Amino acid sequence: MIYDAVIAGGGTAGLYFALQLGKRGFKTLVLEKDPPDRVSRRLDIIHLPYSLYERFGIEAPKEGDGEFGKEFLYSRSRSAIDTYEKVNSNHVYAVHLPAFNARLANLARDAGAEIIYGARYKRLIRECSEIKGIVYEKDGAEYEAFGKLIADASGISSAVRRDIDSPYMETFEIGPLDQFYVMLKYVIYDDPANETLEPVSWPYYKTWIGPFHGKSGGIIGCGASTSFDYCKYMMEKFEGRIPRPSYKVDHFEYGSTPYTRTPYSFVADNFMALGDSAGLTNPMSGEGIEYHFEFIKETLDAVCKALEDNDTSVEKLWPVNVIYNRSVNAANQEIRASVVCLMKMNERENEYIFKKGIIFRSDDEPEPNTVKELIKGVLSGDFSLKALTDTASGLIKAGKIRRHYEKFPGSPVGYAAWAKKADELWQKAGKITDMDRPLEVSGS
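User: That's the sequence. What structure does it adopt?
Assistant: Structure tokens below.
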């Protein structure tokens, strides 16, 4: 049997892609390496915006359904030494990721998708160098699955993408320094009155607190690039500066997501990369699910047109690149590049930008004249001249990257020259790991 699409990976990206293709009437096979009870088990609690459910056609969770954890209407962020707080409307659900993923699997099946668990990708099937399918291993035996389109949703391993031999598909590894590490410390407070009831973040420390659902405690979380050691370092720095009420540790959870630029092209002949394998994550926080879904939603019509025309060549799939790179991804990659300069600020500078509503601003605050306020900060000694020049230079470089993505070539013909220029721009912009690594953990 030849499927319309064979998807390697049964996480949120692969299942949502299968669900959407199934709704359009396409026959889809999902191959997931883990058994059902081990999928999406890195972290239990994640936060998903209410808008995700509305925008992507998924029913929101309800209290008592096993997926629902808690619902929040606001988010709070605080400055480095806790002087200033910003409050923003932010309708968010705290949900249990394994249960959310299981619901996606049921929805995909209802739409006609077939899912095989315990099926580990081994290699591509090629005929005269053309991709025709996947060889996978299950219970010690090898099987073949053929499809018009092969999609890699295998996660950070990018198992299929890294096997592609095409001038239109990069095969770089998402290595240790290309990931965003998340450490969650679940705690029980000695005094139940100190229970955390709503999430609060301290961006300077890359740390936040949130409720420990069902218990009189909280979650102290940290998300940072480089390593789990750096997460631990930043969490300790946070608790040393912003003391928490006394507690006992219940348990830890660890996870990571890609934190690198996306491949310049998401498609090759009969192939498409999506989800973590395509580096599709929030450029500020590293969260991925909303960005996985958005990519699929934005590009679905182009993919379906190629399948309907029985032509999944790179030329036919190229609109996927054009649609996403010229709009959503141009903005995302600008933010990703700008984060590099924002990470260079010290405590005093962080306090100043909170005070003036620069970057971090409550909903009821007027937008400041950023240039004027930064210059005033330099004159008052609250913001260093170096920080100002670094920020200005970084934002200029990030803006050039955005404009370059907005000019992504309309066909594969101009891709090589465009990619060469993009390499030069990213080289100048740098990476967050160039400075997001304290001396105290530099040997880790």
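The first helix runs from residue 12 to 23.
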